[in-house]
């Protein structure tokens, strides 16, 4: 039981991430439930709080986990993380370079995409962010395919053309671009997650003079609908702007 992860959903659809421990109790504003009862109900089951509120019991999906896990830095939004996996064209067995690790949200998407034969080398310059990321990743993902590095990517020693992809989610990607470009294999992708268009422009400018060709800049739209028949319309509250995704492709060094 110790450490098992569950997601509970109440009748309003609110979700709560719970890590079970012997003797533990989950508290909801409509009553409490012992962790033993959650374990007995199991994934797909239902428990009731002592005040009669039904809570459905689930194994958290990766999206649910990233949205509800503890955070030191804001995680890459799951819709964008999954698009980054697609833009990076990741497959099992590949090696990916990542910076910064932050809370480990994007790392989990990358680690799942490359699988147990693959590897994610993740750099984070703030030690307390890295500690939180390691905890988050180990709690969800039991495969040992992530190597953590407590340093800025610009200080890393990397073999040239050794990664199938580079994923960047940091404030000033232009500072690490030369190092990242050199470590990327020819014809493979570097994708940066950038909340501001000014960051996009600065990154594109920094790529000039490097063996990187700008492939595309995009935003990922994700419009949720409210369906409670006969009600059916787009949700009034949506996730607004998260970030721009900027994808570069590596030229062969001449
Ligand atoms: N993608 C992460 C996630 O899903 O949890 C969130 C990344 S967070 C927005 C940005 C992180 O980059 C911060 O933790 C910051 O300390 C780190 N960072 C900034 N510059 C860096 C650099 N040059 N090298 C490594 N990490 C860096």
From TrEMBL:
A Pfam match? GCD14
UniProt xrefs under Gene3D superfamilies: 3.10.330.20, Vaccinia Virus protein VP39
Q: What EC number(s) has UniProt assigned to this enzyme?
A: 2.1.1.220
Keyword Lyase included in the entry's annotation:
no
Q: Which family does it belong to?
A: Belongs to the class I-like SAM-binding methyltransferase superfamily. TRM61 family.
List residues of the tRNA (adenine(58)-N(1))-methyltransferase catalytic subunit TRM61 C-terminal domain: 60-229
Among InterPro entries, the record links this protein to: SAM-dependent_MTases_sf, TRM61_C, tRNA_MeTrfase_Gcd14
Q: How does it assemble?
A: Homotetramer composed of a dimer of dimers.
Its ancestry begins with: Bacteria, Thermotogati, Deinococcota, Deinococci, Thermales
Any idea what job this protein has?
Answer: Catalyzes the S-adenosyl-L-methionine-dependent formation of N(1)-methyladenine at position 58 (m1A58) in tRNA.
Which organism's genome codes for this protein?
A: Thermus brockianus
Indicate what this protein is called per its UniProt record: tRNA (adenine(58)-N(1))-methyltransferase TrmI
UniProt catalytic activity? adenosine(58) in tRNA + S-adenosyl-L-methionine = N(1)-methyladenosine(58) in tRNA + S-adenosyl-L-homocysteine + H(+)
Q: Which UniProt keywords apply?
A: Methyltransferase, S-adenosyl-L-methionine, Transferase, tRNA processing
């Amino acid at each position: 039981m110790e450490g098992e992860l569950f997601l509970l959903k109440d009748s309003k659809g609110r979700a709560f991430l719970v890590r079970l421990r012997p003797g533990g109790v989950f508290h909801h504003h409509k009553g409490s439930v012992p962790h033993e009862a959650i374990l007995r109900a199991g994934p797909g089951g239902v428990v009731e709080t002592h005040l009669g509120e039904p809570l459905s019991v689930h194994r958290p999906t990766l999206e649910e986990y990233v949205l509800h896990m503890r955070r030191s830095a804001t995680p890459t939004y799951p819709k964008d993380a999954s698009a980054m996996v697609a833009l990076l064209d990741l497959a099992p067995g590949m090696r990916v370079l990542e910076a910064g690790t932050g809370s480990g949200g994007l790392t989990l998407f990358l680690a799942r995409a490359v699988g147990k034969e693959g590897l994610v080398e993740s750099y984070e310059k703030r030690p307390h962010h890295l500690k939180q990321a390691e905890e988050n990743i180990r709690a969800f993902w039991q495969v040992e395919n992530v190597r953590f590095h407590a340093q800025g990517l610009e200080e890393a020693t990397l073999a040239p053309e050794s990664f199938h992809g580079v994923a960047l989610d940091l404030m000033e990607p232009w500072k690490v671009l030369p190092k990242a470009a050199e470590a990327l294999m020819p014809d493979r992708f570097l994708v940066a997650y950038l909340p501001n268009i000014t960051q996009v422009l600065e990154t594109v400018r920094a790529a000039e003079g490097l063996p990187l060709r700008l492939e595309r800049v995009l935003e990922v739209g994700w419009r949720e609908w409210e369906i409670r028949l006969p009600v059916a319309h787009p949700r009034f509250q949506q996730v607004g702007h998260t970030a721009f995704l900027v994808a570069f492709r590596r030229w062969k060094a001449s």
